[in-house]
Amino acid sequence: MRQPRLSSVIERRILVNYRVAPDAAARLLPEPLRPQLVRGHAVAGICLLRLGHVRPAWAPEAFGLRSENAAHRIAVEWDGPDGVETGVYIPRRDTASRLNAWAGGRVFPGEHGRADFEVYETPRRMHVAMAARDGATQVDVTVEPADELRGSELFGDLAEASRFFREGKKGLSPTTSGLHLDGMELRTDAWHVEAGRVRSAASSFFDDLERFPRGTAALDCALIMRNVPADWRPLPNTTAHGDARLAD
To answer: Is the pTM above the cut of 0.85?
Structure first.
């Protein structure tokens, strides 16, 4: 099936970012992917994303759908035909939308699990909690907008952080078959991020001491995107070597 290009509005996107030991991140990646390092650290995190007006690019905006979604991400690089490419590996995607869960991996790239979301949002505070219905993943995050990015050991300032995440626009996801990685690319002419201040963050993924032994994953910073129009374009499948099945 030919997968369509999707249009949407990123109504709210919270990126909660962690500094991770390179060897701990590498253990979670299938070949040909390897961790993309910043100041000696791998970069990983949680994307809490509310999309609005999601529709095939040819469809009028009025027909678009809205959904809450979560993705666990690791910044990666790999050798492409024209040199080193960068993006994110997404071992786990979850959504509140039954349609997204059905269509992911069929109509558009990226298989999704079902999850329940709790959201409380004001202009000055955002709280998002997510619990996957299979019991494998829970997230509870509170973030506030900030005037500048402070305390990060990954990025010197907001401009550096913004550039890093804008360049990592290709997302690769495992599939149930484990034979290839689904690919989707985020494109927007209106890229804009704000600095965030993390008030609290709990993640069963990053707090798991078997996955990340003590000292190998540390909360670093948060970024916020609001009301950004964006397209999502399918990428050719990437052949995976090693375990590329969906994370439990």
So the answer is: yes
